[in-house]
Amino acid sequence: MSKLYKMLMLFICMSTLFSFTQVVIAQNYSVKGIVLEQKTKSPIDNAAIVFRTVDSTFLGTTISDSKGEFSFNLSKKMDKLLLQIHHLNYKNYTKLVYVQKNLGELFLESKEQYLEDVVVKNSRPIVEIIDGNLRYSIQTLMKNSSVSNAYDMLSKLPGIMKIGDKLSLIGSQKYIIAINGKPMSLEMTQVRQILQGLPSDQVQAVDILYNAPPQYRINASVINIILKNSDNRQAEETIFQGNVSSTLSYNRNFSNNSGLSLNYKKKGFNVSAFYNYQDQNNVSLSNLYSKHKNLNNELEINQNTDIQVLRKSHNAYVDMSYTRGKSIIEADYTLQLSPSISKTANSTNKFKTSFNKKNYQTILHNAELIYKYTDLLTIGGDITTYYDKGQQNLLIQSSEDKSKSDEIYDFQQKVLSYKLFTDINHSLKNNWNIGYGASFMYSQDYNLRSNKIENDIDTISNETLATVYVKVAKRFSQSLSCDISLSGEYSYFNKEKHFNLFPKFNLSYIPNMNHMVQLSFQSDKIYPAFWEKKPYVINIDSYMQKIGNPLLIPYNEYTARINYILKRKYVISTYYTAQAHYFIQQAYQSDTKHRLIFQSQNWDYQRLLGVLGVIPFNITDRIHSTFTSNVFLTHVKHTKFHALSFNRKKITAYFALNTTAALVKKHNLYFDISAFYMLNPIQGIYDLSNPFGLDLGLKWSSPNKKFDLVLKCTDITRTETPKIKVHYQNQYFDMTNYEDTRGVILTLKYNFGNYKSKKNKNIDTSRFGL
């Protein structure tokens, strides 16, 4: 292990040293060109040249001189620009161009007729292919929407499905969130806490990266949130801005979510701070009906469970960056503290009554330091510590003889993780680009579980993950480009060694702005959470039980996809995903004891074949809608699922409609409605009911845009959470969960100083014991 570590560190140091020697050949972001008359080839002076991003965001303008020549300095490196040229005597010129130092000759066509009155309406594109990513314009999709934070914004994005409080990316089994290109894979509860404190009106666009490039250093798809003005690092003016908000929600109880964000900027020096406090009181109900056959006996159980979660949590974040010339230094620190978490579950059936109470606390620290030199070099590292400690008390009382059993155990977990990484990128001649990099991650996970009856379970797990990659990209023409990458990954976890190669491929063909086609292939490896591999046995109540699986192994995932975009609005995406040794936690009735056991197991495979469609349309000038459909075939197989096997296929359909309307536009009063329906979902041996969700929202903004007031009603029909039915071979049970998703939410937000949010960093806790 030490030899591998030394070799990796040597590679990082040599790559970094080589990159610094290449600084002198870094690209200049100045572009130039010449404007000519189409027939005579004569120069055109005083032509207005407008530069925009591909989603029509204004960058700047310049004017051609007497020779028809012009030049313009870009604030950052870009691959594509939307170029517009205007002149009184010539027809307007609009073209998507690839950025290069010399744009060459640009020809304008003389006007043959003049109109006295001309009205030009320029609608912003909804979605485009940018560097192999699907980029959605939030200003277009969320116009007049009542969403107030980034989490609610994502739930309404085409291609993202929300059921209950959980978001999923259609066509991808795993994804992580990134902000301004920084990956933040984490546990969903933590995602929600951070994104609910980020105002949605500070988001400019969202990239969907089904095939994330290797420099993201993750094995998953990526949802990248791009904030407004995220590149304006060297603004000369001094800025002090902020936002304070409070959200009061009522489901069966009241919960509060309040936050404060501050941002200070002066001559390349930026400091941002974020604080969020949540006081949650969530209640849910569940019903379990089971016909349990084993040992030639059949036990019928009808059990009701009341669950309550009380959680008080603090999230604090400080980010600092300093920009000088083409160099950027970034440092940030994150604290996530939950000093009081209480979970109680009271279960009752005709045989026994269970009282399960769990009290614990968690704390997480993360610090990160990154140095960047333009797009040429990135080098950095971070360290994360996580700690939780608590006690669980399970009291079981017999309904017949009133006897009691009391099980009390203490638990704690400590995680230490650090990583180092570097990425290097070179632009070569003839539109070639090469990039390479490496990363090294080490983590240690300590777990303790003890009680007075059994022996203590005291385990330490060490994991090492080392990755190197190379990426080659080529632009063959204005309309055709591709990139290919290969990553080598070495992992060492609890004496298990794995080495894998992950090829990825992207091909983009854009003959014009009305037709865009993308082909991609990716391969990933999905690792189990730390807790899934622990040899634990936890009694949930008198009948249900959780068991760890030390034999659980990672699974490989391969996905091929074709995306077609028509008129930068309509999307058709076809995908195929194969997952060998796919794992997920499922319940089964034990054949040796009367227990319903939840355990993660590796299946033979899961395969998905589907078609995604996105259709935006306007009913009137004030009513805008987006319809999303996803129809897919699921094929799951497991030859040894405990004492049985399954091989199942089923076609599932998902439909969603999001509509926003301006009720009283001059008074900034908006209304929206969101609905979804899913038909025939399955999961292993589970048959799920058809969930239906309906949300309504109302938003008012003050004339000066300082105050926002949002009122929402969620899960009005209380049918978002699907029911589970298992009537398969010798397994027979039904589970109905009434999640705490139906309620009323009131949000008040106040902006001061023309608020501009900074990114809020989150840490990869997806495999911790949260």
Description:
The protein starts with a helix and ends in an 18-residue tail after the last strand. The strands form 6 sheets. It has a 22-stranded antiparallel β-barrel. It has a 6-stranded mixed sheet with strand order 8-9-14-15-12-13. A hairpin with a 2-residue loop joins strand 5 and strand 6. The protein is mainly β and 770 residues long. It has 4 helices and 45 strands. Residues 23-28, 113-122 and 755-763 have low confidence and may be disordered. The longest helix has 20 residues, at 2-21. The chain is 5% helix and 64% strand.
Q: Shape, please?
A: globular
Instruction: Determine the strand fraction and express it as a percent band.
Output: over 45%
Q: Level of helix content?
A: under 10%
Q: What structural category do the secondary elements indicate?
A: mainly beta
- How many strands? 45
Round the Cα radius of gyration to an integer and report it. Answer: 28 Å
- Contiguous helical run count: 4
Low-pLDDT stretches are: 23-28, 113-122, 755-763
